[in-house]
Design brief:
Blueprint (H helix, E strand, L loop, with lengths): L7 E7 L6 H12 L2 E4 L18 H4 L4 E2 L12 H18 L3 E5 L2 H9 L11 H14 L1 H11 L1 H6 L5 H14 L3 H9 L5 E9 L2 H18 L1 H10 L15 H7 L5 H25 L3 E5 L7 H14 L5
Parallel strand pairs: 1-4, 1-5, 2-3, 2-4, 5-6
């Protein structure tokens, strides 16, 4: 995948939560003989099925799925770890002559796989450095910390608000660890061209209809036993503060189980947080170049009809067939 002629062909199906990405991906794979690569940062975890709306074996309908159930909930997974796992899946698809269908709603992860973002110089958190910068901010204020960034990396300082202490610290960390301004790195990443030759689709729907679908999905999760799923994870020893339990649908149930709120309140919070997340997803994907918007209402929400339209488009683009 080093030159335009060598780019791997793929299909991208993006969209907000509850928009039907998984079912459309399966339907498309039935038409192309392809395989699904899940672009979801939480479906990678085993035993976290209900709250992540993870596709079931029955829903897979015999289609090969990658990047699902690859880690235990207490195992860390950075963006570079996910990218590496996705690269391995893409290579396997290429070796098998199978069209990969990247489907999911975690925009940052999807973008990293599509563009091959370079995370090689991200040396990870330096806890002592981070703590010293946080202490400096506490003692001298956010503005003083921001001035340190302005001296080291004026371009980054111009882009980051002084009150966004977390991002200011991350930029200073990067500069201290690499000796290079993070603004240069970020610009290089923005200038990247996609390393996949892809046909991309963004599933959308009337906002109120989408929100109603999200609310119904949360009710179904409750009936399916989400509360018990979270309780079991905690009983198995997973720490309430684990990264995997910060996902929407899990963190709210943790607050119920620790007595902070009622179960009804927890589920209402899941609905609200899911709706807010869907809005952020749409904002992200609308900025992502190369994604054709599909109004799923125009296809009666039928995955097979949507997949049929996608098939026509990917043929036109020379991606398949």
């Amino acid at each position: 995948m080093n030159t335009d002629n060598e780019k791997q062909k793929a299909v991208v199906i993006a969209g907000p939560t509850a928009s039907g990405k998984s079912s459309c991906a399966v339907a498309l794979c039935h038409l192309t003989g392809g395989a699904v690569l899940s672009m979801d940062s939480m479906q990678i975890y085993r035993r976290m099925n209900i709250g992540t709306a993870k596709v079931t074996k029955e829903e897979m309908q015999g289609v090969r799925h990658y990047l699902i159930d690859i880690l235990d909930p207490d195992e860390p997974c950075s963006i570079s770890d996910f990218q590496q796992a996705a690269d391995e899946a893409l290579s396997e698809c290429k070796a098998r002559g199978v069209l990969p269908v990247l489907a999911g709603g975690t925009g940052f992860y999807l973008h990293a796989v599509m563009y091959g973002n370079d995370f090689g110089e991200d040396t990870g958190a330096d806890e002592s450095l981070r703590e010293s910068l946080m202490a400096f901010a506490r003692e001298n204020g956010a503005q003083a910390l921001h001035e340190r960034l302005a001296a080291a990396d004026p371009a980054a300082a111009a882009q980051i608000h002084p009150n966004n202490i977390k991002r200011v610290i991350r930029a200073l960390e990067y500069y201290k660890q690499t000796g290079k301004p993070i603004s240069e790195h970020n610009q290089a990443e923005r200038d990247r061209r996609p390393r996949l030759d892809f046909a991309g689709f963004l599933l959308t729907e009337d906002r109120e209809k989408l929100y109603a679908r999200i609310n119904r999905r949360v009710d179904i999760m409750r009936e399916a036993g989400l509360t018990e799923e979270v309780r079991t994870l905690l009983q198995e020893g997973l720490a309430p503060g684990a990264t995997s339990l910060q996902a929407i649908g899990y963190k709210e149930i943790v607050t119920y189980l620790d007595g902070t709120c009622t179960e009804d309140a927890a589920y209402e919070a899941i609905k609200a947080n899911s709706r807010h997340y869907a809005k952020r997803q749409l904002t992200w994907f609308k900025r992502e170049p190369g994604l054709e918007t599909i109004d799923i209402d125009q296809f009666d929400l039928d995955p097979e009809k949507i997949a049929g339209y996608m098939l026509e488009r990917i043929r036109e683009k020379g991606i398949w067939g």
